[in-house]
Amino acid sequence: MGILAANIVAFGQPMPAYMFPDAFTVPHSEAEDWMWVGQFILIDGKMRGLFSLLFGAGMYLFLEKAWARGQGVWLQVQRLFWLGVIGLLHYFFIWRGDILFLYACAGLAGLLFVALSRRKQLVLGVLGYLGGCLLYGGFVGFLPAVADTEVGQNPAYSEMARELEEEKQADLADGELETRLISSGSYGAWVSHNISDHAGDLPFYLFLFWFETLPLMLIGMAAYRYGLFDGGVDPGRQRKWGWALLVVGTALTVPVALWAKNGGLTYYGTLAAMAGFSMLPRGLIILGLVALLALWGQTVSGGLAERVSAAGRAAFTNYLGTSILMLLVFHGWGLGLFGALGRSELYLVMLFTWVLMLLWSKPWLERFRFGPLEWVWRCLTYRKLFPLRR
């Protein structure tokens, strides 16, 4: 559900609009600029980070069960291989914002560290994440100064400023082409564009998130082994650290969001804010959220909690199912709403989709053992058919 909140803009608008409001094909109001600020503080990167951390915890849980049956790491390799295949199909044929291929690659790398102690996994994860903060901050942090200020007029930086503007215009032009292809209803032409123009983006895409995703997976493995999710950590201490990390991380994120807003939400300003300056405070928020949500998950009860839990147990189906639903909503051969809705209206689509997730997941899992895609993934992993109906 949180991932959809982060991705909904890029489902219904050109991909550059995910970070850059001027890439919207409809006017982006002042109120929606403030919505950008709110999403930046509360959602962007945090949901992906939670997903990455929980994926690492899930990997170790899967391995524990495999080891108990006398099976080994190769079963996890098969599982990740099929995840990667599904991710590539998702990337080229459904939605280019796929994260599954990245998780498959990072997960395979994470297998190199499963034999380490939980302390070493935690230390390596934290150090790797801090290294990513330095790397990404250095990589994009100076770009707004060159692209958006008088620094770019300095002869020493004029060539760089020109190249940055060309890269920006190329990205926006690709978004405009994407809009035409999707709005025309030519699914084949859109897929062909993804393959011919964006297959080469995958290595950069992996690099862009590698030093975030793999470290968070290692932290997730360690957190699972320390008992963060099942009461193995003192609840009072976990709650105190969770709130402290959440508050400090949010307090450090707000100035970054306001800096980007006061700078006019420029292309390179929003890029630097999202990919560079917010990574460290984002990490604190992710750790705080996972600590508090883990406590909440151990104690919460009631109808809504059961439905949220069921949606989580069918997370793979909900993730890919959402992308398929968005094809029907936005592509020209469907409802044809791509590029027609502003940020406010896209949030309404998000809320409607949340309701669908909560409505179908619980009754399905009352009748079946797995979500549909969870079942397919399990059968591919073990190379045999499992009973689906309870």
TrEMBL record:
Domain of life (superkingdom): Bacteria
Membrane-spanning ranges: 35-61, 73-93, 99-116, 123-147, 204-229, 241-260, 272-296, 316-340, 346-365
The protein's name: DUF418 domain-containing protein
Keyword match rRNA-binding: no
Keyword list, A-Z: Membrane, Transmembrane, Transmembrane helix
InterPro entries registered for this protein in UniProt: Bact_Transport_Assoc, DUF418
Residue ranges constituting the DUF418 domain according to the UniProt record: 224-384
PANTHER family in the cross-refs: INNER MEMBRANE PROTEIN
Provenance organism: Erythrobacter aureus
Pfam family, one: DUF418
